[in-house]
């Protein structure tokens, strides 16, 4: 009978980041998300949902949706945050195409 090899656990988050830099990042994270400011925590999480979606950070998105739900965000508020992310992502594609059209002097569908 063949001996099964133990599968190594996946590396932890930030395992390739120098501990000093991790501490700086985590300090910034705590300061920006958990310190009272002009925005309440639920609003911060809704913004973080949209930003995470646009940044394509799956782990970030899941964590911020979970936190938003814990803070009382409704499914409609989360949906609105995601709709804003969709709009920003689409606007980014349109902006890039505008710049390409200018650089290449293209006028495919001008009225």
- What is the CATH third-level topology name? AhpD-like
* Amount of beta strand: under 5%
Can you tell me the CATH superfamily? AhpD-like
Order of helices and strands: HHHH
Which structural class should the secondary elements be placed in?
A: mainly alpha
Note the gap between the termini: 74 Å
CATH architecture assignment: Up-down Bundle
Shape: extended
Total individual domains: 1
Number of strands: 0
Average pLDDT level: 92
* Contiguous runs where pLDDT drops below 50 for at least 5 residues: none
**Rg (C-alpha, Å):** 21 Å
Tell me the layout of helices and strands.
Elements: H1 19-34, H2 41-55, H3 58-70, H4 75-104
Helix pairs in contact: 2-3, 2-4
Folded structure, characterized:
- With 111 residues, the chain is mostly helical.
- It has one domain (19-104): Up-down Bundle (AhpD-like).
- The chain contains 4 helices and no strands.
- Helix 2 (41-55) runs antiparallel to helix 3 (58-70).
- The longest helix is centred in the last third of the chain and has 30 residues, at 75-104.
- It is extended, with a radius of gyration of 21 Å.
- It starts with 18 loop residues before the first helix and ends in a 7-residue tail after the last helix.
- The relative contact order is 0.08.
- The model has no long low-confidence stretch (mean pLDDT 92).
């Amino acid at each position: 009978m063949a001996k099964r090899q133990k599968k190594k656990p996946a590396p932890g988050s930030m395992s390739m980041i120098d501990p000093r830099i991790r501490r700086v990042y985590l300090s910034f994270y705590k300061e920006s998300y958990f310190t009272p400011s002009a925005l309440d925590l639920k609003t911060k999480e809704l913004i973080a949902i949209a930003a995470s979606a646009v940044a394509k950070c799956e782990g970030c998105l899941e964590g911020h949706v979970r936190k938003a739900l814990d803070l009382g965000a409704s499914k409609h508020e989360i949906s609105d945050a995601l709709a804003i992310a969709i709009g920003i992502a689409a606007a980014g594609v349109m902006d890039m195409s505008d710049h390409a059209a200018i650089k290449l002097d293209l006028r495919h569908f001008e009225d």
